[in-house]
Design a protein that fits this description.
Layout lengths: L1 H20 L11 E10 L10 E4 L4 E4 L9 E4 L15 E8 L6 E8 L5 E8 L10 E4 L4 H11 L2
Parallel strand pairs: 1-7, 6-8
Antiparallel strand pairs: 1-4, 2-3, 2-5, 5-6
């Protein structure tokens, strides 16, 4: 009888631990995706950069820009930040966008906003000619949606 209670207690503990690992409402939904296209231009002239390579590390997506500096719409994961789940839920997620072009410094954009319900087209990325003078990479972070930031400030401001 004691062995049965011990096994039952372990089973309940494992079940409880497993339930704690399940995403809470408003968190990442398995398989949730959105659409994103990128427009790559020269940082000084705003001329489109053809054949720039755009990489989305979260899903291994890679594509090239066309003659207008644009990628096709890519399916990307919508990764929501669980940190904000109890503070102010987000209706978007983020991905990382890495961009490479011959003769230009590479660029890493973190937290590019994407939503499951609305394609994001022509996310602007500006690359600068590689003249050999920079030692640090171009690393950018996109801010959250302005309305979300306003709501956060309003909600916690008083």
């Amino acid at each position: 009888m004691e062995l049965w209670r011990s096994c039952a207690a372990r089973a309940l503990l494992l079940l409880a631990a497993g339930l704690c690992l399940l995403p809470a409402s408003g968190c990442v939904r398995a398989g949730e995706t959105g659409l994103l296209s990128v427009r790559v231009t020269d940082g000084w002239t705003d001329a489109p950069i053809e054949n720039a390579r755009v990489v989305i590390p979260e899903n291994g997506g890679v594509c090239q820009t066309d003659g207008n500096g644009r990628t096709v719409l890519m399916e990307v994961p919508v990764l929501r930040d669980a940190h904000f789940r109890h503070i102010l839920p987000q209706d978007w997620g983020t991905v990382t966008v890495l961009v490479y072009a011959e003769g230009y410094y590479a660029c890493a954009l973190y937290h590019a906003r994407v939503a499951a319900d609305a394609p994001r087209e022509d996310l602007p990325i500006r690359l600068f000619p590689n003249d050999g003078t920079l030692e640090t990479p171009f690393s950018l972070i996109e801010s959250p949606d302005e309305d979300w930031v306003r709501e956060m400030l309003h909600r916690y401001g008083s």
